[in-house]
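Thread: Newbie trying to understand structure tokens

Hi all, I'm a second-year student working on a class project, and my supervisor (Dr. K.) asked me to get a predicted structure for one chain before our next meeting. I've only ever worked with sequences, so writing a 3D structure as a token string is new to me. If someone could post the tokens and maybe explain what I'm looking at, I'd be very grateful. Here's the chain:
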Amino acid sequence: MTTHTLQSSENSNSTGKWHFFSHRTIIDPSPLVLERRRIYILPTQAGLMFALVLFVMLLGSMNYNNSMGYALTFLLGSMAIVSILHTHRTLLGLRIEVGKVAPVFAGETVSFQLWLDNRGQTARYGLVWHSITENSKSKIQNPKPKIDLPTNQRVSLIIPIPTTQRGRVFLGQIMVYSRFPLGLFHAWAYIHLDISTLVYPQPLGHKTLPSGKQSENRGEDKPRDGGGEDFIGYRHYQQGDSPRHVDWKAVAREQEWMIKQFGGMNTVQVWFTWDDVSMFNDLEAALSQLCLWILVAESQGARYGLKIPGYTFEPHTGKEHHERCLQALALFKGKK
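---
Reply by user tm_fold:
Sure, no problem. This is what the structure looks like when written as tokens:
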């Protein structure tokens, strides 16, 4: 199983002339199999020149009644015709599946994963993949790496997309093409899969947690997990629990996964509210500060809650709580 990483590229001169075929708004299902009706094929510039040369050779053979000229002209012409079939078959029947994609912070690169399933098919050569940037005005032709799919292989393809702002980012439309085997014909197909992920705000600001919304559990309430110093017992592991509270000695003895519970005088919880970032005039700066506080609190194992317009999450810890808070920041539309 092979993994390929490609660099995203903008529309270039070489592919811009095919752009009028790309106006598709339908989202393709996953897995997607490339059928005949969605594969386009046209001669390349080299193919047109080759046809012109064959035409001149044919005229010369007719003018001088040269049998060897006829034979060479028809031989080369038949090779070109057969290459049409091979170029088209390079894409025909290719199975494409959506893979995993992890959320990132603004300014980082999203790695969209696709699976190329070539099991039960012959090898495919010279497949070129790149994303299409609709608003690009750049005329610079970026390199487009080629990949080969061996026979009966399932290959992982990573397409990186840089991010600049928070929110939901989509892979969008991508194009795959091939000019195998002779470079005389250009076969291509457009793919628009439903694959996206969230981009969290960029964590920026000061790391000191706000002190105005803290409270201590002094034993009157039900003991909470993870915040105090007094050991109060075990409970079964639940998805989202912090790894720092796992009884790793029991795990090493191949026993059940258990969580150590703590409580007592030093259980501290902190709220992150919109008032804590009211001094920021910029919305993104405020969200970046909240994002940084969440990361700091999570790394320290503190119990934290988030209260912003439209979202309220009670103080908790763990991966699921961490992701819910960051998702709220990523999708925040503004103070109502």
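A couple of things are worth pointing out once you decode it. The chain is about 25% helix and 30% strand. The longest strand covers residues 109-117. Feel free to ask follow-ups in this thread.
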